[in-house]
Specification:
The structure is a single chain. The protein is of the alpha+beta class and 414 residues long. The protein contains seven helices and 22 strands. The strands form five sheets. It has a six-stranded antiparallel beta barrel with strand order 2-11-15-13-12-16. A four-stranded antiparallel beta sheet has the order 3-10-8-5, with no helix packed on it. Strand 20 and strand 21 form a beta hairpin. The relative contact order is 0.16.
Length: 414
């Protein structure tokens, strides 16, 4: 009886364990563990989107004039300094004219000598003409005197030209402003000697009008197709970080430059500087607004950069089963068409040539399908920035979730 009692107890314990295990299995089936997401997604929405081209440039006056000198000499007097407003014809500085005036007096004396020679030659010709008429001298002597007269006339012209050049040099020793403007650079001091030989030295730099400025910047070749004259450009400068200035694209120049394989084109932005807050040489951070739209379907720009691996596209089965699963999962006619296009592309497109639709390039984005398998959706795009991209055509609608990147596994990054 003791043995039978112990056996009955063990049987009851075993039955209780089996029943508990069955109950646990049933509970586990009814309450599976939550599936860990493999991808991060972002929603498609509808709203405004603007596209801008970013560039750095330098604020410069519309027109600057470099004032130099055509003669050499020592600076005797300086009448204009930095930031001075000058008028056209105003004296900026004077060079010591002593050497130039001495040369002028020398040419004046040479002119007087040439004029005396001319008077003598003219009198000789008059006398020889009378003597030839009387038969006292030959015609050859008359011809000789006429040649000397012509040479004397030329000598007077040469001497007068030399005197005019010397007078011009004396006048040029006084440096005057060629335009109305503001002195923004001065490279000369009193007592300094300037030499005007093969290259004219720059003594002053004058900006004509600081109320109108230009920003000279460069944009990459990837953005030049978006730039048009008249587009709004907004910019900030370090001197006024709390304020945003505005200008307009004035000119797109074709003289491209290449540096380390990067090709850029010059862009000129016109800026109204009526309050004269902007100064020449300031660095401007420019945003050229090339497009702006309201109420468009926006997809996350990061979704365009996501590219799944071949294993992720195939999923647990073959490529054919993955395509069938994608078509079965499509709930609308547009989704089915996209799945069919994806299945055909996998067979006929090796990814080298970009697909096109009505001349527009087709981009592929991905939604999360059954078993967290990426499902391709083909779209054409329009205006784009770092956050959103306009969808022109495609099967997506507001609220759809697009894959932007792979999810980080628990405990760290992949």
């Amino acid at each position: 009886m003791n043995w039978r009692s112990k056996g009955l107890k063990w049987a009851m314990v075993l039955a209780a364990v089996v029943l508990a295990g069955g109950a646990w299995m049933q509970w586990k089936k009814a309450n599976p563990p939550p599936e860990v997401p493999r991808y991060r997604t972002a929603a498609v929405d509808q709203g405004a989107i603007s596209q801008a081209v970013l560039a750095n440039g330098t604020v410069q006056p519309v027109n600057t004039v470099n004032v130099g000198t055509q003669v050499s000499g020592t600076v005797l007097e300086r009448s204009a300094d930095f930031n001075d407003r000058v008028k056209k014809g105003q004296i900026l500085l004077r060079l010591d004219p002593a050497t130039l005036q001495a040369r002028l007096r020398q040419t004046q004396a040479q002119l007087a000598s040439a004029q005396a020679t001319l008077a003598l030659a003219s009198a000789t010709v008059d006398r020889n003409e009378r003597l030839v008429a009387q038969g006292f001298i030959s015609a050859l002597a008359l011809d000789q005197s006429q040649r000397e007269l012509a040479a004397a006339v030329a000598g007077v012209e040469v001497a007068r030209a030399q005197m005019d050049a010397a007078q011009t040099d004396v006048n040029n020793s006084v440096i005057r402003s060629p335009v109305d403007g503001v002195v923004i650079k001065r490279n000369i001091e009193v007592g300094q000697t300037v030499a005007a030989s093969y290259q004219t030295p720059d003594l002053y730099q004058i900006a004509q009008d600081l109320r109108q400025m230009r920003i000279h910047t460069n944009v990459s070749e990837a953005d030049v197709g978006l730039i048009r004259p008249g587009q709004v450009a907004r910019f900030i400068v370090d001197a006024y970080p709390e304020r945003e200035f505005e200008g307009k694209v004035e000119q797109f120049r074709l003289n491209a430059t290449s540096s380390q394989g990067v090709v850029t084109y010059p862009i000129v932005v016109a800026v109204d500087n009526s309050d004269e807050l902007l100064k020449p040489g300031m660095t401007a951070q420019v945003r050229i607004v090339v497009a702006s739209k309201q109420g468009v379907v926006r997809i996350p720009t990061a979704a365009l950069r996501f590219k799944p691996d071949d294993d992720e596209l195939k999923g647990p089965g073959s490529a054919a089963s993955a395509a069938s699963a994608a078509m079965a999962a499509a709930s609308s006619a547009s989704s089915v068409a996209a799945a069919k296009a994806a299945a055909a592309a996998s067979a006929d497109d090796d990814g080298l040539l970009a697909a096109r639709r009505d001349g527009a390039r087709i981009f592929r984005v991905y939604t999360v399908g059954p078993a967290q398998q990426p499902q391709v959706r083909e779209v054409t795009i329009g205006v784009s920035n770092t956050r959103f991209t306009e969808m022109l055509t495609g099967p997506l609608k507001a609220g759809d979730e697009l894959i932007t990147r792979r999810a980080e596994p628990p405990g760290g990054k992949k």
